Amino acid sequence: MVNLGQLFGELKTCLKKDQFIFKKRLHGVKKISDENKQANAIEKIAADITRSQENREKRLAGLPKVTYPEQLPVSQKKDVIKDAIANNQVVIIAGETGSGKTTQIPKMCLELGRGVDGFIGHTQPRRLAARSVANRIAEEMKCELGQQVGFKIRFSDQVSNNTYIKLMTDGILLAEIQQDRFLNQYDTIIIDEAHERSLNIDFILGYLKNLLPKRPDLKVIITSATIDPERFSKHFNDAPIIEVSGRTFPVDVRYNPISDIKKDDMEAEGDQLQGIFDAVDELCAEGPGDILIFLNGEREIRDTADALSKRNLKHTDVLPLYSRLSNAEQNRIFAPHSRRHIILATNVAETSLTVPGIRYVIDPGTARISRYSYRTKVQRLPIEPVSQASANQRMGRCGRVEAGICIRLYSEDDFLSRPEFTDPEILRTNLASVILQMLALGLGDMSEFPFVQAPDSRNINDGLTLLEELQAIKPAKSRDKTSLTQSGRELSRLPVDPRLAKMVLTAHKLGALREVIIIVAALSIQDPRERPQEKRAAANEKHGRFDDPDSDFIAFLNLWNYLEEQQSELTNSQFRKLCQKDFLAYMRLREWQDIVYQISTVCNEMGMKATSQAADGELVHKALLSGMLSHIGFKDEKQIYKGARNSQFHIFPGSGLFKKSPKWMMSAELVETSKLYARINAKIDITWVEPLAQHLVKRSYSEPHWEKKPGAVIAFEQQTLYGLLVVNKRRCVYSNIDPKVSRELFIRTALVEQELGLNEQFLAFNRELIEDIQVLEHKSRRRDILVDEQTLYEFYDKKIPKEINNRAAFLKWYKTQKQQNKHYLHMSREELMQHGASNITEFDYPDTWQQDNIILPLTYHFDPGQAVDGVAVQIPVALLNQVQESGFDWHIPAFRHELISGLIKSLPKSLRRNFVPAPNYADAVLAAIEPLQGSLIEALTTRLLRMTGVRVDAQAWDLSALAPHLRLQFEVRDEHDKLLARGLDLAKLKAQLQGKVTDTLSKVADKGIEKTDLTQWDFGKLPASYVKKQGQYEIKAYPALVDKKSAAAVELFDSEVKAQQAHQKGLRRLVLLNVPSPIKYLQQNLPNKAKLGLYFNPFGKIADLIDDCIAAGVDSLLVKHGDIRDEQAFEAVKEQIRGELGDAVVLIATQVEQVLSIAHSLHKKMKGRVDLTMITAHGDIKSQLESLIFKGFVSAHGADKITDLIRYLKAIQKRLEKLPVDPNRDRLCVLELEKVAQEYKKLVNKTPKGLPIPDEVTTIFWMQQELRVSLFAQTLGTPYPISAKRVINAIKEIE
């Protein structure tokens, strides 16, 4: 039986990659208790160990022979290098490009016996270099590629069991670490081009630093250009450095600084161009040789190429060199040529690409350097001065074939002031991908990882923030506890950037996996669409076929579908030609297809399979959006996009969305050049963001409030994503967000304010109690009887369980609770009252106001400063015409004392001082007078006169000075209790609502009361008033005949006065419709002089004047017969008028002729020039004439007034005769008349609008005319004694 100890001893002679597995298996065997099974297992392990030993021996025996090209500088130092490798675990070899270190060092390792126990791993930064170096070494070793020398790059693996030297990209080695933590498949690792300090290189160097103590047998060789090799040495504990010189010739460095101007100056570009022109001219004079000019980017290269081409330099070709050039255009640079080449290149030509035949270099000293901004969270490409090391690399490009010249377009002082080295990528990039891989490998905290140069902690935090955005890590308050989520573990398995990997995972959930894999693969590579400078328009036209107006991403999908269709139909050769014709890079398309295949393969391994059904655009974009949540933007009013964290960016001109500029968009890449640009973009619907960003949005809530309909507390939610408002003022249930506030609002609004939305019995009971107590408060004008809302809140708060904050929860609880005690939530009167209210009696605070048989409700309001404050009388509009003003000035008993005190205080000081203190006088007045007897003001005036002997004039009382609650308000309401009008003046309300009152009367009247189109009295007796019972009210109206011109009608009026006036005119019309017209009689009997005089009518047609005379004639005859209300009386008066009307009209017309003749002569006299002393008199006379003679004046004044009218006009004649003699006396008389006129005008204005002027007021008008006769023509006489004082006294009596 094989001894276990012996097997452990033999492990050292096995291949390194097998040793760990065998060791683990041997330890496992020890645990097998069954001896037979243990023996079988040991036997199998022994066989495997033997096989591994044989493979090792075979590899040792098959070590290929190695030779070294003598011309390479590294060959001269092979012994030194081999010795260093043999004696040290880590060696740093520094040498310029062309020294041969890349191809010769793996062979030296072979010579030392390395590559037997495991591969000699050799990493390159780029796939092309890995493949080409493998080819070169295989050629030199005269072996087939894939055998002794192989390579492994993404999607291509040419490594076999016979392979000793394995070329690969540094990314491949990084990926292998996940499966082979100790790198057991390697016994030597060469890290080439380490000076580039890419993320992968720095990560590998840090990983190796930790690994080497655990793998003492592992050799690490780091090769670098001569850029800071000491840093690598220090990183690996002062590992030895061996320097190998490159094949170089002396270079003459000349400094030709561009004129001193600021970099942001608009002329900088033009100034640089001139500097290049001067340098080119200088170098052309030095002799033949190609010129390499370093520039910042594609646009600058194109502009400079155009400018140089226009100079038509002899025997010279200007060739651009940048990454987006097609392969054919790049190959022109390397092809043999006889003419001078001027090559315009980006910094790619510093170390990565050796351009043959370069003798001269022009270095403007700047480059676009990718740099991550932790402030804006975007990758920037600013133009920066290059480091000294980069400048020296550029200089070294021209010393390869012969002595060269390098012209620097900056000063030597500028060069010496620059940093020595370019910052490594890890200091300039978002570290999300690195952190993700580190977490997947379980390497712990990034801040403790042994990087060659540790990245800025801010950039580490940004990487973690991005991974949080992608839900790849669990948010941790303490970063040392950061760990991957399930989603993060899946992200780490996908061979693309974390953002792109997130899109793939989301696409699987949304059913858009195929489409998103295609787009993600396209975003992982260089754009396959080529745009040669000289064929840009044609290329744009070809590419434009695939554009989508709303999405650059869909353009990739359209292109893929097109290519898939074409490739299936065409041969490989035809497809290549199609690509060329359509300006598509064939190799990039192959790469695109490879990546799609690779991602699809990984997805399949993870159990994610694409569906055969095509996904719609919305799902595709939602999946893409999941990886770009911090790359969305909103277009502001300045047409600039506001992005995450207050950034601002513009759509890149090359984007399909450049001209459309949607309101919201997402971008695959935000890059800062001259501005911050969004490169590959799509329009988005902002509603897509919220479901994808629930872990990122910041929520805030405003305006929490109870809503009756849903029965819950509702608030408005606002969500922001990195400062962008993605959800604005959306309604949401607040109960779960803040249960405490929701409960308080529920109790205060739903229960205390009775907004529960259900007719629960306890609410009705409590509401009635509260309303009763509120009425007491309004009556007493106090706010301290009812408890405050806090007390009501506390009542419910104590009784209702703490978890209840909405209607549904409340009802569920209350349903059970009321079965035990149905009065559980009933309040008591004692609980609701803070103070008693025994002083609030029915007598002092009545609920109704009675006037005759009308009872009107009173409402009480305690709302100082509001429209209604105090007591309001509620008047149904149908009763408005019956309610009189009398009595309301006394107010209710409770307020009378305060009212009288207020009235006394409203008096002018000279009067008020006689009644001090006012409350005492109010007491005395109230004790002595009988309320509601006559006017309060009159009663108060009379009583104060008796008490003090001081008379108070009626005008002295200032009602406007009273507090609002001391005057009763009137509120008129319709049959639906809707408020129609409100005010303090009942007469004004009546005038304002007279139409409404009439309409209401018509609505409630019995059918047939009102009649139209009457030409005969055939409707029976017409009552003077009409009463109808409606509800608890008696509605009273006044029927009357109404003149409708061609007929009469019966209508209801709200006022007896208006009814009487209308009835008189209606009677007149009905009479005229039933008697012959007196016009013929008038023509026969009117003297010719009178006929001619009537033509002085200044108011239009003569017929209208005659009609006016006839109307006056009928009125004069009707007035003798009183109120006519039945057919018999009407027939009698009609027959009498038939016989008398002709003579009456002739008499009236004769008198009217005299009136018009005198008036005509008066107007004639006042025409022409008027002396200044008589202007006032003339104005007064014209005003008097206008008030006496107007259209319709005959019937308006009445037939009995025409003789007086003639006398008044004659008085004016006499006045005009006297005026020139004594105009001063006339002026004094006018002043006296004006005083009277002002008082009369005040009296007229007191008549409510819509009511006829009362007869007693009309009498005052005629008294003023008699006063004029007395003042200006006393000889004509007046019917009664008259003076200004008599007229004013008469006015006061009416008031």
UniProtKB/TrEMBL annotation:
Say which domain of life the source belongs to. Answer: Bacteria
The record's keywords, sorted A to Z, are: ATP-binding, Helicase, Hydrolase, Nucleotide-binding
Chain ranges of the Helicase C-terminal domain: 275-442
Keyword Nucleotide-binding applies: yes
PROSITE patterns on file: HELICASE_ATP_BIND_1, HELICASE_CTER
Annotated membrane-spanning segments are: none
Name the Gene3D superfamilies on file: 1.20.120.1080, P-loop containing nucleotide triphosphate hydrolases
Spell out the protein name for this chain: RNA helicase
